[in-house]
Amino acid sequence: MDSSSRRRRFSRRDILGIGLALAGGSGLGVIGSHVVRRWRQPQAAVAIMRAESYDQNLVELLRDGLRLYPDFCRSVRGRRVVLKPNLVEYHSDRVVNTDPRFVAAAVEVFRQLDARQVIVAEGPGHRRDTEWLLEESGLESALRAVQAPFVDLNLEPLFPVTLTANLSGLGRLWLPRAVLDTDIVVSMPKMKTHHLVGATLSMKNMFGILPGTKYGWPKNLLHWRGIEQCVVDVNVAVRPAFAIIDGIQAMEGDGPIYGDRVEAGVIVLGDRLTAVDSTAARIMGIQPGHLTYLYRMLERGGTINEGRISQRAEPIEAVQRNFVLTEAFQYMRKPLPIVDFASGV
């Protein structure tokens, strides 16, 4: 807990909330823990950049966004960077994947930050023919234009990594060499709803580093073990350093593959994935505390409380829109009961 948090006092509203919890016979229990976690969540900063289309100067826009994180930019110099986009399936009429122009622009920006090497890596979770997927999606030509290598994580040599969180009970994950040998991993997802977990953003995007050759298509073993649990396990194991969410064209409804295009017009980025995903969820009209993998990260240094997130560039209110949710996830629009006063989620 930082010194500023220790100096904070509970407000009258916090005290009233604790009293309500005690009166309800729950003690501090689950409800009270939200109050405690409010003060334990580290401060974070998330930037929201307006981006109306992929035809604008994305290199300049991403560079401006990254400059808001000078410490991270300095850490890139001389380091090997892996950009992990979302490349899962291809449908010509749907915005399933991180846009190739967006990925190519990120390659250019990280080179401008003097990265020693920038590679793009993904282990597609549906299509086993990665070459077909690269060609049809346009990512192959986009990377060729900037002379950036692509690594198919489904075909990489694998090495076991012991899980410290181990919520999945797997004990270890087999991770590809390209991810283990790099210095910095950057998650670059597409902003989408998800028919199993509500929303798929930068943390869920890390699923793609786990190879289908080991975990099946579409990562069947991990689904059986619990998606939320595996999302936490892989993020704690790999600890991606940065997230850049492609929300210029996003997906709503029956995502992450069969949903509809939505012109969200935003890029969301930052150096703490839980805070980036929480901000993106709020932009989508989703209360992030309902996303189980975000809530589970609170015990592991996560930040989801809006009061602990410094908003840079655009405010959430300027770009927020309610994404269409399937009936099963309508509840995610509602503030969390009772604990809303404490957690801000």
Task: Describe, in plain words, how this protein is organized in 3D.
- The N terminus and C terminus are likely disordered.
- The chain starts with a helix and ends with a helix.
- The protein folds into two domains: 40 residues, no CATH class; 303 residues, Rossmann fold (3-Layer(aba) Sandwich).
- It has 17 helices and 13 strands.
- Strand 2, helix 6 and strand 3 form a beta-alpha-beta unit.
- Helix 6 packs parallel to helix 8.
- The chain is α/β, with parallel strands linked by helices and 345 residues long.
Q: Residue-averaged pLDDT, rounded?
A: 88
CATH architecture of the largest domain: 3-Layer(aba) Sandwich
Put simply, the count of helices is 17
Q: Outline, from the CA principal axes?
A: globular
Map the helices and strands:
Blueprint: H1 3-7, H2 12-23, H3 29-40, E1 44-50, H4 58-66, H5 70-76, E2 80-85, H6 100-112, E3 117-122, H7 130-137, H8 139-145, E4 150-152, E5 158-162, E6 172-176, H9 177-180, E7 184-188, E8 190-194, E9 198-200, H10 202-205, H11 212-215, H12 220-225, H13 227-238, E10 242-252, E11 260-262, E12 266-270, H14 273-283, H15 292-296, E13 309-313, H16 316-319, H17 340-343
Parallel strand pairs: 1-13, 2-3, 2-7, 3-4, 7-10, 8-10
Antiparallel strand pairs: 1-12, 5-6, 8-9, 10-11, 10-12
Helix pairs in contact: 4-6, 6-8
